[in-house]
Amino acid sequence: MIRLMTAEDIEHVQHIARETWKHTYQDSIPQDSQMEFINRSYSNAMMMKRMEKTIVLIAEHRGVPVGFANFTKKDEDGDSELTALSILPSCQKSEYGRKLVEYALSMLQGAQQLFVYMDAHNTAGRTFYEKQGFQLLDVFDELFEGRHVVTAQYVYYIKKPVLA
What we know:
Blueprint: E1 2-4, H1 10-25, H2 31-41, H3 44-53, E2 55-61, E3 64-71, E4 79-87, H4 96-107, E5 113-119, H5 123-131, E6 135-144, E7 147-157
Parallel strand pairs: 4-5
Antiparallel strand pairs: 1-2, 2-3, 3-4, 5-7, 6-7
EC number: 2.3.1.189
Organism: Filibacter tadaridae
Domain N-acetyltransferase: 1-156
């Protein structure tokens, strides 16, 4: 089941974020940098702010949260950004990611495109997004937590661009 996040889900989302980051970035981002980012970005206060300013969806299995997606509301240009999508490692490949993306797209009425930015070395994530219909726009260098990373920018065209 996919549903909107409530304050009661905060601990579950924090757990999912920690486990997913550990699994995904165990070979590329030191664990202390991961935990510093997670503790800051998924603190109780930040989670309350996310629920207030953005949309957070929960994927449940038998009543227990196993994944989440966080995306911005459509801006004046018709754009939205998928800022986080995490599924517990034990539940990946169980269609929860696809269901979260589909539910998010259904909530973005009138939006033109959905962007996602991710570590370019996250091949499983990139494969997932490409399978969902996202298209690679750019790959660029940037700093993350003081470390050099290569970021891939993807877009999903909700409404196909009109060619002149």
